[in-house]
Amino acid sequence: MSVLIYDSGIGGLSVLREARILMPEFKFVYVADGAVFPIGGWEEEALVAHLLGLFDDLVARHNPQMIIIACNTASTIILPHLRERFDMPVVGTVPAIKLAAEVTASRQISVLATPGTVQRDYTRSLIAEFASQVNVRLVGAEDLARLAEDFMLSGQIDTKAVNKEIRDCFVDRLGARTDVVVLACTHYPFLTNVFRRLAPWPVDWLNPAEAIARHAQSRLPQGGAVKDVQDIAEFTGGEPTPQMRRLLSGFGLKVI
Ligand code: DGL
Predict the structure, then answer these.
(1) What is the strand order of the sheet 204-206 is part of?
(2) CA of 40 to the centre of ligand 1 (A)
(3) Residue 37 C-alpha to ligand 1 middle, in angstroms?
(4) pTM for this one?
(5) Which of 23, 41, 7, 57 is nearest to 214 (CA)?
(6) CATH number belonging to domain 97-207
(7) Mean pLDDT of all residues in the chain?
(8) Taking the domains of the chain in order of start, what are their residue ranges?
């Protein structure tokens, strides 16, 4: 019984981490779609065509029980297509705008995401539906997924560059300051400690990974035997670097 987890890179590992805790009986196939990384600047039509071709192949080869799109940017456009095409449940990643609107005390929230996620109607309709009573600042970060990826692979971080990407999240309207920032890209939770250090004041950084894993768990039969096979990872877009292989095997994934 396998579950396919997709991201454009290593961001989906933040979801895999939680999914494994809740669903230890499933074998996970992690797909890092390096061919599209960074996914935030892709045109919608080309991206849909790419993703449909990729998923046709992945589903044929792995026959998964479920697909988890652990990528906000891909989720904003591909979920209806995949649900129509395949029989198994397809779980997406939705920016936690509803939760942010519920927990904010200052009524100032920010959504930190890729430029693609920020532009899409999907994100705007979430705001209209769930956050019409609060001020929402949308922040499209051009380079933050790459900075997160470099950090995971090398341990090095360019804090000046990170600061430039996140500073627009902090709004002060006559003393009403942003108190919640939605991490609407699965790469960003890996930088949360860096964000905390750089933030001009404390905020809640909302990471949706656990909620996604819980939702996924609710859509699958429970209670099977703990698996005795290793989780695997596969790449698109060429050979993974030695650092990438090391990172993935640190996550218990065998690269195929
Ligand atoms: N992790 C992806 C997301 O959640 C984006 C990473 C990228 O820019 O490719 O949107």
Answers:
(1) 135-140, 108-113, 180-183, 204-206
(2) 6
(3) 8
(4) 0.95
(5) 23
(6) 3.40.50.1860
(7) 95
(8) 2-93+210-255, 97-207
Residue of 50, 72, 150 best suited for mutating to test ligand 1, as the one with most atoms within 8 Å of CB: 72
185-213 residue pLDDT tens: 999 999 999 999 999 999 999 999 999 99
State which fold the 2-93+210-255 domain adopts.
Answer: Rossmann fold (3.40.50)
- Give the number of other CB atoms < 10 A from CB of residue 66: 21
For residue 228, the model assigns a pLDDT of: 82
In the reported structure, the alpha carbon of residue 182 is separated from the centroid of ligand 1 by a whole-number distance in angstroms of 14
The amino acid sitting at 34 is: G
Ligand 1 mutation target, pool 5, 6, 7, most atoms within 8 A of CB:
7
Give the model confidence (pLDDT) of 44-75 as tens digits.
Answer: 999 999 999 999 999 999 999 999 999 999 99
Residue from 185, 194, 212, 216 carrying the catalytic annotation: 185
Which 3 state secondary structure label does DSSP give 169? Answer: helix
Task: Decide whether any atom of ligand 1 lies within 6 Å of the 73 Cβ.
Answer: yes
3-state helix/strand/coil string of 175-228: CEECCEEEECCCCHHHHHHHHHHHCCCCCEEECCHHHHHHHHHHCCCCCCCCCC
Residue 110 φ/ψ, nearest 5 degrees: -125, 150
Integer Cα distance of 6 and 69 in angstroms: 5
Same fold, 2-93+210-255 and 97-207: yes
